[in-house]
Amino acid sequence: MRFSSEQLASCTRNYSSELGSGGYGVVYRGDLPNGLPVAVKVLKVSMNKKVQELVRLYGFCFDMDTKALVYEFLENGSLEKYLYGEEDGKPAARLEWKTLHGIAVGTAKGIRYLHEECQQRIVHYDIKPANILLTGDFTPKVADFGLARLGERENTHMSLTGGGRGTPGYAAPELWMALPATEKCDVYSFGMVLFEILGRRRNFDPCHGESKEWFPRWAWERYEQGEIDRVVSCCGDGMEKADREKAEMMCKVALWCVQFQPAARPTMSSVVRMLEGEMAIVPPVNPFHYVMDSSSSGSSSSALWSGSYQSSRDTTAGRNSELSVSPAAKSTDPIIEDVTRADAP
Ligand SMILES: Nc1ncnc2c1ncn2[C@@H]1O[C@H](COP(=O)(O)OP(=O)(O)OP(=O)(O)O)[C@@H](O)[C@H]1O
Ligand SMILES: [Mg+2]
């Protein structure tokens, strides 16, 4: 049932009978037109500005047999469709690099709002291209925020009670290892989205052969070898110099976002500034120590990764006990401090 503010004012006789107040607002006594007595909690939350980068919720239904949310309709559907098509079909259309870059920046601003600008910080827990919806002119809007607390979902998602949250392939390690999670898990998932934008492919895709099946690690290896150009080339042919520079920045930001240690990942406001070229990017460090064996070549680490990936996909496993964190993952600390400094305004 949706009430207008006029209906609420009428049924509470202009908020004349106060029952009490709590952390979220004041509660008033009221009567619905059919005589049902009600308590109306007026929430203190206020949207102090109209946020362009979030999908608007128009209303909801909470009847006994129907629970539904009514959102604004986004004409172009989800970003997923444009990166690699739904259900492994062909992409709906090939978006220009400039459009994709705008989608990345807009999405980052939407998540920044959830983390840093709204009264109560909201962790999304399920950032992925399917939850980035596009208007008719390809302005992105983040969808499905605030749903993580609704409880168990279909088995395409990790269970909340099993210690894992989010969608496999995008969920940060702390989610599938049942470690404490903060808003930095959204930063990790956003990093995976950036890789998918750069590569115009799913971040993990066995069709690409062993060395390239997990695009983020391939991108790290190229970067480490001084071959970031090869990552940039995935974005499109014949790009202008300025666009190539933006793609390079996007790759570096993505490498920072998917760092194993949540504290090493940047805040979303830093991500926005780095993507917009307003903040220098410290050279990224290896985000994948925890799946890479530094003493051997890619193949063994690939096996390790696919093992951990498989078990993280296993919705019943929830947490991954085989995965050990190598000491190398901790050795990034001095650079983490650099990032923290770089984060400061
Ligand atoms: N407001 C909307 N406007 C237009 N299309 C939408 C809207 N909301 C959802 N869709 C379409 O419906 C699809 C299914 O959405 P849904 O949120 O149920 O699944 P999902 O995003 O793949 O998974 P999740 O449950 O993790 O959010 C989306 O991928 C999108 O194409
Ligand atoms: Mg969704």
Please name the defining characteristics of this protein.
single chain; 345 residues; alpha+beta; Phosphorylase Kinase, domain 1; Transferase(Phosphotransferase), domain 1; two-stranded antiparallel sheet; binds magnesium ion
How does this structure look, described?
The chain has two domains: 15-72, Phosphorylase Kinase, domain 1, CATH 3.30.200; 80-343, Transferase(Phosphotransferase) domain 1 (Transferase(Phosphotransferase), domain 1), CATH 1.10.510.10. The protein has twelve helices and seven strands. The chain has helices at 5-11, 80-83, 97-117, 173-176, 184-199, 215-224, 228-233, 241-257, 268-275, 298-313, 327-330, 333-343; strands at 18-22, 25-31, 37-43, 57-62, 67-71, 132-134, 140-142. It has a three-stranded antiparallel sheet, with no helix packed on it. Mean pLDDT is 81; it is low at 151-155, 159-163 and 294-345. Residues 313-324 have a biased composition (Polar residues). This is Protein kinase domain-containing protein. ATP binds at residue 41. Its main location: membrane.
